[in-house]
Amino acid sequence: MISTEQISTLMAGGTVIDAAGEKVGKVGQVYLDDETGQPEWVTANTGLFGTSESFVPLRGATVRGDDEVQVAFDKSVIKDAPRVDADRHLDADDEAELYRYYGIETGGTDQDLRGEGRDVPSEAQATSGPNTDDAMTRSEERLKVGTEKVATGRARLRKYIVTENVTTTVPVQREEVRLEREPITDANRDQALASGDLAEEEHEVTLTEERVVVNKETVPVERVKLGTETVTDEQQVSEEVRKEQIEADLPEEATRRENTERG
To answer: Which of 60, 119, 180, 245 can bridge 32 by disulfide, Cβ–Cβ 3.0-4.6 Å?
Structure first.
């Protein structure tokens, strides 16, 4: 069971952890049962930049360390819980709807929990009151905006083969027969008479030509890889913040004196 002292610590900046140990969000408010005074609900700041509060039952919850409360439900279940305004009265219908969502048996009794009456005050509330000094502390909400990295897509580098026709011109050589005649001269007369009398004779010449031979080889031409670069954009965020105002109800005589001094 969570004690009042533990609740005070959690309200000062605690964190809600789901059943698997994953962070759900910062502790927003803790609601006590009107009849027993025991902690019944805790709200976790969820959504973008913690702009909404999700109600989570404290049944089965445990406090880890000084600033973490581990509840008995998964983060995905908590974020999809019915939306109930954490700044107004939590009536029986709202509570019954939350119980049904989380599958909790209520035993046929609807307990009235009041959001505006936090039985465990926040740090701002504890700094003024009948048991403190005669000064009142004015507080206000400040907008804290941060960023988180989320996956937006995946890029894949894939290599595949395509076929294309390549046409090129290659010079080739071949031999052709050419009949050459030369007259009988003193220089070749002996060769001409070497055959003697008339006779039949054959001579052969081998002709050659070049044929085109095609071979293929694989050669590297370039290297390709995926890289990332960071591009900075600007997004405008608009959110409501609350702040306290202090006004004084003065006696009529004091009011006249104040107006006289101003005049």
So the answer is: 119
How far apart are the C-alpha atoms of 60 and 79, rounded to whole Å?
18
CB 24 within 8 A of CB 78: yes
Does this model's pTM top 0.70? My answer is no
| Beta carbons of 145 and 237 less than 8 angstroms apart | yes
Q: Residues 69-81: pLDDT tens digits?
A: 999 999 999 988 9
Q: How far apart are the first and last CA of the chain?
A: 61
CA dist 84 and 209 (Å) reads 94
Beta-carbon contacts of 45 under 8 Å, excluding residues fewer than 6 positions away, are 25, 26, 27, 28, 51, 52, 53
- Distance (Å, whole) CA 197 – CA 203: 18
Q: Distance between CA 129 and CA 45 in Å, rounded?
A: 27
Instruction: Report which of 173, 134, 170, 141 is spatially closest to residue 239, judged by C-alpha positions.
Output: 141
